[in-house]
Design brief:
Order of helices and strands: EEEHEHEHEHEHHEHEHEHEHEHEEEH
Number of helices: 12
Strand order of the largest sheet: 3-4-5-6-7-8-9-10
Strand content: 15-25%
Shape: globular
Number of strands: 15
């Protein structure tokens, strides 16, 4: 399979370069608690040993930032940091990482009266001072509210695209070009559409590809493969992440899966005729990462998959999310959504909250809601 890569500009991240026809780098995110330094270092090294070009770590507090400094001293991995909702932490983490990721949709959480442009300028200043690359990471469930309000609620693509383009234009205006962009959704077809449109508008910008909340293997790998085949096959994509719901000791499988998909595409071993069945049950679940507040989430995702097997022939989407950062927003588009806190699981029907339930209580309540949905769908047939 002959692939003509997009001629994106080079962006250095530690000792690798993405874009400019360099090999596609595979990366992942640690699922350990950042303040557990030994566990985080071990996982970062496991990723590196599996072939990860970049290892991302979540930092959500000054204590996380302090731990990051020690982690940096103990691993040779190229480190990226996820600022989550707190842009101000860029100053504390920039000296210890090779790339900073910020989400345009999360910039409004802190110092709401401050213009987002001032917040981005602060992040870029830290990147310049400490020799860091930047990822502008746009996610379907956390798009800038101002962008969402301008478009029809059924159009999830345009707000993401406009947000990414707006931030690229602003960062360019600061004279900073050492950045990549990601536009992620849990639907591979939307990932294909939004990344294709972005690449048409900004063919110079390297793209980080991923299907967010892809779920558990093998379905999560298949969803990701569908998106990657159609994008990389068109020359779009410079670094990738496979996001799977896995226990910590299996997380390096994300690197293995990503490398295998890329190798298969270049070898012509593709399944581009494969499409997700839009007439069947679809379970999406986020990757297990350090934002997860209760590791019971991983077992719960497996239990949901098993319990809902009887509904496999119904066009219903169930989302199982592991934290408060993405959970509330990224369950809105699902028929039924669960986002997991430290002690309770929050259940939703679309955007409507149904209450919080204990981990030992949630499955029967979920089944009740699922049965009600099946009844409604059966009555419409």
């Amino acid at each position: 399979m002959e692939i003509k890569r997009n001629a994106t500009r080079p962006v250095s991240i530690g000792d690798i370069i993405v874009g400019d026809f360099n090999p596609i780098a595979v990366q992942s995110m640690t699922a350990t608690k950042t303040q557990d330094i030994d566990a985080t270092v071990a996982q970062a090294e496991a990723y590196r040993g599996a072939g990860a070009g970049v290892v991302r770590i979540a930092v959500d507090s000054p204590k996380d930032a302090a731990a990051l400094a020690e982690i940096r001293s103990q691993t040779k991995a190229n480190l990226a940091v996820d600022l989550q909702e707190n842009f101000r932490l860029a100053e504390a983490v920039a000296p210890y990482v090779d790339k900073i990721r910020y989400n345009p949709g999360h910039l409004y959480h802190h110092q709401r009266s401050k213009p987002w442009q001032d917040k981005v300028r602060f992040i870029i200043d830290q990147a310049l001072e400490h020799d860091c690359a930047i990822r502008i990471g746009v996610n379907c469930g956390s798009v800038d509210p101002d962008k969402k309000e301008r478009y029809d609620p059924s159009d999830s693509i345009t707000p993401m695209l406009e947000s990414a383009l707006e931030h690229c234009e602003f960062v360019d205006s600061l004279g900073f070009t050492r950045y990549v962009v990601s536009l992620k959704d849990s639907d591979p077809q939307k990932v294909i559409e939004v990344n294709t449109k972005f690449a048409e508008r900004r063919p110079d910008v390297p793209l980080h590809l991923g299907v967010t909340e892809a779920g558990m293997p093998p379905e999560g790998v298949i969803k990701t493969r569908i998106a990657f085949e159609q994008l990389i096959g068109r020359g779009i994509g410079d670094t990738v992440r496979v996001s799977l719901t896995l226990p910590n000791d299996r997380k390096p499988e994300e690197i293995d899966a990503g490398r295998q998909i890329v190798d298969d595409i270049y070898a012509g071993r593709v399944r581009t005729v494969v499409k997700l069945n839009d007439k069947a049950l679809n379970i999406i679940s986020c990757p297990s990462c350090s934002r997860v507040e209760n590791e019971a989430f991983i077992d719960l995702a497996q239990q949901v998959k098993q319990m809902t097997e009887y509904a496999k022939d119904y066009d219903i989407t169930i989302a199982v999310m592991g934290c408060r950062v993405n959970g509330p927003g990224e369950t809105d588009d699902a028929d039924l959504g669960l986002w997991c806190g430290p002690a309770k699981v929050n259940l939703k029907r679309g955007p409507e909250p149904l209450g919080a339930f204990g981990y030992d209580e949630i499955l029967p309540r979920l089944q009740k809601e699922l049965d009600a949905l099946i009844t409604v769908k059966t009555a419409k047939v």
